[in-house]
Amino acid sequence: MTAPAHIAMFSIAAHGHVNPSLEVIRELVARGHRVTYAIPPALADKVAATGAEVKSWHSTLPSPDADPSAWGSTLLDQVEPFLADAVQALPQLTEAYEGDEPDLVLHDIASYPARVLAHRWGVPAISLSPALVAWEGYEQEVAEPMWAEPKRTARGRAYYARFHAWLEENGITAHPDDFAGRPARSLVLIPKALQPNADRVDESVYTFVGACQGDRTAEGDWTRPADAEKVVLVSLGSAFTKRPDFYRACVQAFAGLPGWHLVLQIGRHVDPAELGDVPANVEVRSWVPQLAVLRQADLFVTHAGAGGSQEGMATATPMIAVPQAADQFGNADVLQSLGVARHLPAEEATAETLRAAAPALVDDPEVARRLRAIRAGMAEEGGTRRAADLIEAELPAR
C-alpha cells in the first residue's frame, strides 16, 4: 500500500493534451492521493470532475475553441506562443504552490513551467505524453531538417536565445530542445503500435501504457439507425475543424452510397448551412460522443490525432486518415503502415477518393484481422491502472 502523497499535474488548456490524462488523475485520486491539477479556467470543470483540486492560472495561448488561424502557419508561429506562455505562467504557478509543494510532478509535454518547478523543488517529474515520443535518431531524422531553415533566421535565433536565457535564469543548463523533448521519465499514453520506430525508443525512459480510457457515459450516447447498413463517422477533432470544403466532399462521397449513414462532426467554426442541402442519411453535429459512435461504426474518417487514432484502433474501426497538423501526419503514416487505414493528404481528399477508399477498407477481411490483433495488444498494455502503479513507484520514500 502506497502512502498518500501530494501529486501535482500541469497542463495547457487543450482538449487533446488534457483528455488523455484525466483517467490517470481519477485513478490516483481514488487511491487516496491528494492531486492538484494546474489548468486554465477553460478546462477547469473537466479536470475538477476527476476529483483533483484545480489550481487555476491565466494562459496567453489561444483558447481550446479558437479559430485554427490563431496558431499561425509557420513552425515559429506555433512554438513561440508556448515559450511566451511559459514565461508568464511560471510566476503564477510559483505563487499558487507556495507552501504547498508536491511530492511528485506530472506534466503534459507542453507544460514547460512544470519541469522548472520540479527542478526548483527537487522532486521527481514524469511526463505524460499524449502523442508520439522521440526515438534514438529522432533529432537527426526529424528535428534537425525541420528546424534547419528557422534556425538560420534572426527570428529563429532570437527564439532560442530567449529559451536559453529563461532556462539559465531558472538554474537549468539543458539545451531547449532536450528540455522540451527529452524528459527524464515519461509515460506514453498511446498504444505502442502508434509509435513510429518503436524499436528505437529508450524504454528505460519511456513506458507505453496505452490508451487510458474510462467511462464515457457522461458524454452521452448514440444510437445507430435501424436502416443503416454501414456507418461512417467523420471528425477532425477539436482544433483544426474549419474545413467546410472537406465536409462538403464527405457529404458528396457518402450521401449517395446505398445503405450508408454519415455522422459528420463539423466543430464550432462551420455553419451547417455552408454544407447546403444534406439528405436524410447525413447527420450533421457540432460535436458527437466519439467513442460511442465508433463502437457502432464501420469506418472512421479522422484527422489522425493521437486520441482519435487510438480510439479507432481500440474499437477496431478501419480509418481514412486526413491529417491537418502537428503529429497527425506521422500518425497517418503509421496507421497506413499497420494496414488499418488509408492516408489521404488533405488536398487529395475529394469525394471520389473518399468513396473509393471506403469499400477497400471496410470490405477487406485482412484489415479487420489486423485491427482485432491491434486491439488485443492494446488491452495488454495496462492503461490507467498500470500508469497509476508506475507513478506511485516514482514517489520518493517518506
3D architecture notes:
The chain is of the alpha/beta class and 398 residues long. It has helices at residues 15-30, 44-48, 75-96, 112-121, 138-152, 154-169, 176-181, 244-254, 290-294, 306-314, 328-337, 351-362, 365-379, 383-393; strands at residues 6-10, 34-39, 53-56, 104-108, 125-129, 186-188, 206-208, 230-235, 260-265, 282-285, 299-302, 319-321, 341-343. The strands form two sheets. It has a seven-stranded parallel beta sheet with strand order 3-2-1-4-5-6-7, sandwiched between helices. A six-stranded parallel beta sheet has the order 10-9-8-11-12-13, with helices on both faces. Helix 10 (306-314) links the parallel strand 11 and strand 12 (319-321). Helix 3 (75-96) packs parallel to helix 4, helix 3 (75-96) runs parallel beside helix 6 and helix 8 packs across helix 12 (351-362).
Identify the notable features of this structure and list them briefly:
398 residues; alpha/beta; 6-stranded parallel β-sheet; 14 helices; 13 strands; 41% helix
Shape: globular
Average pLDDT metric: 90
Strand adjacency order, main sheet: 3-2-1-4-5-6-7
Class inferred from helices and paired strands = alpha/beta
- What is the number of strand segments? 13
Helix tally equals 14
Rg measurement, Å: 21 Å
Instruction: Note the beta-strand portion.
Output: 5-15%
